[in-house]
């Protein structure tokens, strides 16, 4: 008999018919009541065993973590908390689980312990919920762009260019690393002998390649893995993460801000509508966690209130210059409560500043735009008529409560001469990016795009506090387990 998903059984309006369910035992109590979960929902279905007519050997094997198959009658539940239950007539153990050794016992585990067991943590309520939310968000991303007529582009994971100019990249090579790699006359490694004939790295962004496709297909998006070799052991950084990067021909900065706001609201609303039970569970989990924090550190909003806050408010658009004035005059800056004091125009804003603007000053999501050119990437369009020393670029960042920056984007520099000058000033090799410059030589036009770190979005929607808990297998300094 074909088995049914637990979510379908729990939502069934038809009872007193035979069903089969397969899943993993969460708990087994009184030798009678199995809480069975198959991952389709956060809720378990209760399976009632006729223990008097079930062999002791079988009962002993019904342990937490064991995979089982049950067949029986779907009936209205006599117990509180669930509408239906399965009155078991046949039970088969599909895979045993040693109760003494199975790490995911039905008790509260620390997040650190769960990270050490990332291959099993998804069997807990919290991580099952997080990963279902992540999956739904990913689907919503594709649905949004497909509905809007964007084309999905797969940009290279191995690349010879550094889109961000950050230099913190993972090198890809087939040359030996024991010192015997071929050398040039000056002693440097001869990368012409390497697999690709040049030095290559794992990508930090698909943006530059994405731009070339936008200049032919009009509007495209990428959604794939990106890599940073930053030695950042923080709750907001990963060495491997997923990025969503739309690029749109003929869009200016205002269009770009409109697109980003509309996109974020769409995917959050879709997920709130689809993942109600998981989000309610994660909200309750967060409330419980916050009880241990001092009152001042607790969030003013519940998780669902925070999501509604983003959906119900227009994002406030504020220039970088205006934001600096607000921060300079703010109480935490004057009283030196900020870790990084804002003294002058040109400062690179930190998370504490971004969160102050969103959570304390404007009390809504904020889009900052027109940043100083010297703190932004080479490909961002230089604003006209800016005073020397105070040049700004058509950049924008979207700031969220609890997270800080969630999106970074810009109108791209479409003028060939200006782009070349900027590249020279930063020491970026024109020959290395000849193909990128071709898009400015042949049919250049105003175009814009942005990047959204997918895990930052999942972090916000789930209310989790550490980015390592919203990706299946986190890659961080000194950690490539699993």
From TrEMBL:
Q: Does the keyword Zinc-finger apply?
A: no
Pfam families attached to this UniProt entry: tRNA-synt_2 (PF00152), tRNA_anti-codon (PF01336)
Which reaction is this enzyme known to catalyze? tRNA(Asn) + L-asparagine + ATP = L-asparaginyl-tRNA(Asn) + AMP + diphosphate + H(+)
Gene3D superfamilies (UniProt xref): Bira Bifunctional Protein, Domain 2 (3.30.930.10), Nucleic acid-binding proteins (2.40.50.140)
Q: Which UniProt keywords apply?
A: Aminoacyl-tRNA synthetase, ATP-binding, Cytoplasm, Ligase, Nucleotide-binding, Protein biosynthesis
Q: Name one GO molecular function term.
A: ATP binding
> What is the first-listed, main subcellular location in coarse terms?
cytoplasm
Q: Which InterPro entries match?
A: Aa-tRNA-synt_II, aa-tRNA-synth_II, aa-tRNA-synth_II/BPL/LPL, Asn-tRNA-ligase, Asp/Asn-tRNA-synth_IIb, NA-bd_OB-fold, NA-bd_OB_tRNA
List its EC numbers.
6.1.1.22
UniProt subcellular location: Cytoplasm
Tell me where in this chain the Aminoacyl-transfer RNA synthetases class-II family profile domain is found: 131-472
Question: Is Aminoacyl-tRNA synthetase set as a keyword in this record?
Answer: yes
Q: Which GO terms describe its biological process?
A: asparaginyl-tRNA aminoacylation
Q: Which HAMAP family match?
A: Asn_tRNA_synth (MF_00534)
NCBIfam families referenced in this protein's UniProt entry, alphabetically: asnS (TIGR00457), PRK03932.1 (NF003037)
Q: Which PANTHER family does the UniProt record give?
A: ASPARAGINE--TRNA LIGASE, MITOCHONDRIAL-RELATED, ASPARTYL/LYSYL-TRNA SYNTHETASE
- Quaternary structure, from the entry: Homodimer.
Q: Which family does it belong to?
A: Belongs to the class-II aminoacyl-tRNA synthetase family.
Identify this protein by name: Asparagine--tRNA ligase
Record organism = Flavobacterium aquaticum
């Amino acid at each position: 008999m074909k088995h049914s998903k637990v979510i379908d059984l729990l939502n069934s309006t038809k009872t007193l018919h035979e069903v089969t369910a397969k899943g993993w035992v969460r708990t087994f109590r009184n030798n009678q009541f199995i809480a069975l979960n198959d991952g389709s929902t956060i809720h378990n279905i209760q399976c009632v065993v006729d223990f008097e007519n079930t062999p002791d050997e079988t009962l002993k094997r019904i342990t937490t973590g064991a995979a089982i198959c049950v067949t029986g009658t779907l009936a209205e539940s006599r117990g509180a908390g669930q509408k239906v239950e399965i009155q078991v007539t046949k039970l088969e153990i599909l895979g045993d689980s040693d109760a003494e050794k199975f790490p995911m016992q039905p008790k509260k585990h620390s997040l650190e312990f769960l990270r050490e067991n990332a291959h099993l943590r998804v069997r807990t309520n919290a991580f099952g919920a997080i990963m279902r939310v992540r999956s739904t968000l990913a689907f919503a991303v594709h649905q949004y762009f497909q509905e809007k007529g964007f084309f999905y582009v797969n940009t290279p994971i191995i690349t010879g260019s550094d889109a961000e100019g950050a230099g913190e990249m993972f090198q890809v090579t087939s040359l030996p690393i024991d010192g015997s790699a071929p050398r040039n006359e000056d002693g440097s490694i001869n990368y012409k002998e390497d697999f690709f004939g040049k030095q290559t790295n794992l990508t930090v962004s698909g943006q530059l390649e994405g731009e070339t496709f936008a200049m032919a297909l009009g509007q495209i998006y990428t959604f794939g893995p990106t890599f940073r070799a930053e030695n950042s052991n923080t709750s907001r950084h990963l060495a491997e993460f997923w990025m969503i990067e739309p690029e749109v021909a003929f869009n200016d900065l205002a269009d770009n801000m409109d697109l980003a706001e509309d996109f974020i609201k769409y995917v959050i609303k879709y997920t709130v509508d689809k993942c109600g039970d998981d989000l309610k569970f994660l909200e309750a989990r967060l409330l419980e966690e916050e009880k241990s924090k001092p009152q001042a550190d607790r969030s003013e909003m519940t998780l669902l209130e925070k999501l509604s806050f983003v959906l119900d408010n227009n994002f406030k658009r504020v220039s970088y210059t205006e934001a600096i004035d607000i921060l300079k005059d703010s109480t935490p800056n004057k009283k030196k409560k900020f870790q990084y004091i804002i003294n002058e125009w040109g400062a690179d804003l930190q998370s504490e500043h971004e969160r102050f603007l969103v959570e304390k000053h404007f009390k809504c999501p904020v889009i900052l735009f027109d940043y100083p050119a010297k703190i932004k990437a080479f490909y961002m369009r230089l604003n006209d008529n800016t005073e020397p020393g105070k040049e700004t670029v058509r950049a924008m960042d979207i700031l969220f409560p609890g997270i800080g920056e969630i999106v970074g984007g810009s109108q791209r520099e479409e003028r060939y001469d200006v782009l070349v000058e900027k590249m020279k000033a930063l020491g970026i090799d024109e020959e290395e990016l000849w193909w990128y410059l071709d898009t400015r030589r042949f049919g250049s036009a105003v175009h814009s795009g942005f990047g959204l770190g997918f895990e930052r979005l999942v972090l916000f929607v789930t209310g989790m506090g550490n980015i390592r808990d919203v990706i299946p297998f986190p890659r961080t300094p000194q950690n490539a387990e699993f």
